[in-house]
């Protein structure tokens, strides 16, 4: 029987809220060609002359508002998920971050020291995007080629509408859905529109076919927006929500180029002005609460909504350590086991 292990990979976080640590993290993150996909010279000029001079201080201040005694919420939660999953499976469960610590090279080194022969890679992203899911898979495979070229890797595919994932989302949100509310906003992390076009291998569907996200196509396997809409539709069906009780928006845009719309920071005050005074916001693109969910939505987003006349705002926590989410991950590990231990 082959030696089998599981590797969970999330986005990452600075080591601390110091400006120096935040700067180091942002430099690694924004130097990724799948995040800022401009020619390298332009990418580095923008990064070092327009972003890094001011952004680290601003981000450090934002991180300070969510930091815990144990550290970054994303890292703390990810380690807890690792521990809870380890309690459910016999095989080693490793954790790495695409940027920062614990690093992917260190995780692969630990797997090598254990003599692992087969690996289940679990990118902790429900949806496919070049700046999230794809960059994790590529970086892990680069490191595997460098350190363990003989390692067999099976990768969990985007699970944006798998019934067990939708059920986990529903169970985690259920206590909030049982309250009185006027509207549920699904706020997904935004990406540049050009990333959608780059992910369209046909070069003939995205933004070219009418209602492209609603028109069935093989390219939806790499279309972030289509997958976000599919998650929303599946969740709404499971929760029994009528079409007028929910909507979709996109957050966290960077720069001036077109990103996916509508924008969350514009949608929240609009909802309040439309008379939707009590709203819920959930963020299915994130499996762990982090800066974008805790500070951007639960903090700044709430202020925008209330200042526009809203009366009640609740940010539904991410899956985090919810038992249904751990069940989902354990089922993935169990399902892969027969394939990975077959001689």
How do the strands and helices of this protein lay out in sequence?
Elements: E1 4-13, H1 19-30, H2 40-51, H3 55-66, H4 73-86, E2 93-100, H5 104-113, E3 118-123, H6 130-147, E4 152-155, H7 163-177, E5 183-189, H8 193-199, H9 224-239, E6 246-251, H10 264-273, E7 278-282, H11 291-307, E8 312-315, H12 323-341
Parallel strand pairs: 1-2, 1-3, 3-4, 5-6, 5-7, 7-8
Helix pairs in contact: 1-3, 5-6, 7-9, 7-12, 10-11
Which features would summarize this protein structure in a list?
single chain, 343 residues, Rossmann fold, globular
If you had to describe this structure to a student in words, what would you say it looks like?
The chain is of the alpha/beta class. It folds into two domains: 4-159 and 322-341, Rossmann fold (3-Layer(aba) Sandwich), CATH 3.40.50.1400; 163-315, Rossmann fold (3-Layer(aba) Sandwich), CATH 3.40.50. Helices cover 47% and strands 15% of the residues. It has twelve helices and eight strands. The strands form two sheets. Strands 2-1-3-4 form a four-stranded parallel β-sheet, with helices on both faces. Helix 5 packs parallel to helix 6 (130-147), helix 7 (163-177) packs across helix 9 and helix 7 packs antiparallel against helix 12 (323-341). The radius of gyration is 20 Å and the shape is globular. The model has no long low-confidence stretch (mean pLDDT 96).
